[in-house]
Design brief:
9 helices; Rossmann fold; magnesium ion binding; Orotate phosphoribosyltransferase; alpha/beta; single chain; two-stranded antiparallel ribbon
Length: about 240
């Protein structure tokens, strides 16, 4: 297993391909159209993703950091005054990016905490926690580890907007490319550009180059992407 500490090049497309290759190498993404995985939802799917494994290794963290820093969506955001990760898998990549940018870090819970200060956004000071709009005027980038239907990321975006944040976008490590995700983001009251370090098409291309995926397998996975929740029926 290659777990070197070298920094990848900063070109976003190059880093995306390197991230996809490394994710396949360490099993952070697994493709199995003939023997599908059962997701937590109970649906049978030909792909499984665990970006927490990607964040385990120095090489993985370096690729994630370079992928975010080199992405045009981040460059267009201007001065970012905070990075907010989704709980819980988005926390690690958000913290890595916030450190690289030298800016504040927050994370957004899936629901309001039921004890203590009963917050949904963590990282606020005591004084900020008393304000109706604690992030008013602050340019915040949302970071998610994985985009599927976009539901959890959109919920986090809504929480940041309610807190007054100027939401400059949402960056994620990986996306399945479901049509529902951009539709979900389009329903936000304020536009929030969505982009990823690598996506399913990039992943399939890298897997095919490595010889681990036949053309038939690629077409099977593309059919799954068109109807992910109907694809596994009868399997």
């Amino acid at each position: 297993m290659r777990c070197d500490h070298s920094e990848p090049e900063q070109n976003a497309e190059t880093v995306g391909r390197e991230a996809a290759a490394f994710a396949l190498e360490i099993g952070a993404v697994r493709l199995s159209p003939e023997d599908p995985f059962t997701w937590a939802s109970g649906y049978r799917m030909p792909i499984y993703n665990d970006n927490r494994l990607l964040m385990r290794y120095p090489r993985g963290r370096a690729l994630v950091r370079a992928g975010f820093l080199g992405h045009s969506g981040l460059g267009e955001a201007g001065d970012i005054q905070g990075v907010a990760g989704t709980a819980s898998a988005g926390i690690a990549p958000a913290a890595v990016l916030a450190e690289a940018l030298g800016t504040d870090f927050y994370y957004v819970r899936s629901s309001v905490k039921g004890h203590g200060l009963a917050r949904k956004i963590e990282g606020l000071s005591r004084e900020e926690g008393l304000l109706a709009k604690p992030l008013a005027g602050r340019r915040i980038l949302l970071v998610e580890d994985l985009i599927s239907t976009g539901g959890s990321a959109v919920a986090a975006a809504e929480a940041l907007l309610e807190a007054g944040a100027d939401l400059v976008g949402c960056g994620a490590i990986f996306s399945y490319g479901f049509d529902e995700a951009p539709r979900a983001f389009s329903r936000l009251a304020t536009p929030c550009p969505l982009w990823t370090i690598f996506d399913l098409e990039c992943l399939l291309g890298v897997a095919a180059e490595q010889g681990g995926l036949s053309q038939e397998d690629m077409e099977t996975i593309r059919r799954w992407r068109q109807d992910p929740f109907g694809w596994g029926e009868g399997r």
